[in-house]
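User: If you would, consider this record:
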Amino acid sequence: MTELSLPHLVRQPEIASENPPLLLMLHGYGSNEEDLFSFADWLPNSLLIVSLRAPFQLPPYGFAWYSINWDAADGKLSDIRQAAESRNLIAKIIDEIIEKYKVDKSRICLMGFSQGAILSLATALTYPQKVQYVVALSGYLNPELIPQKMAVSEVSKLQVYASHGASDPVIPVDWARRTHPFLDGLNIANEYHEYPDGHTVSRDNFESFLVWLKARFD
């Protein structure tokens, strides 16, 4: 049986299904696979949930999908090469999960926070044949990580929920606000929500994206 390329946690669906839908979780910079997995008990019972650990270790105990130069002149400088490698690795792992867990290829959702949200959007737009749904929490759409030209007929099948804290000190809310009009331009069904919070997922935010998920997976 195929093993996954990254360490991970798994919650089996509570509702028996031969080909369950998949929710693949991608944590943020400096965190680990246990972070978003803490939501698992409250998410739709039909979902097979897999939470990945990012490949790059940050001492003493955290992990990242790519390096960030916090002292860069423009505030933050992402290592785009590493980010693209992680994006492609996520796409590869989706195939590994399909083989190992026999999930429904037509019902795959990525959920990411911060770096994980950036890569969820990047993976979905780069590999739209592999992903149907995205929940992007406290992230933004990085144009350096998506194709310059996309077939609208392929990407328009995506559905996206995005949210951000209006007082986020890590990722400026203005960056997040560009996601909605960009997706609108590709005819991608999407919602964008703001909350009076910082770089976190508030209770109101959680309840909001839970409603969105339940509408699709309950």
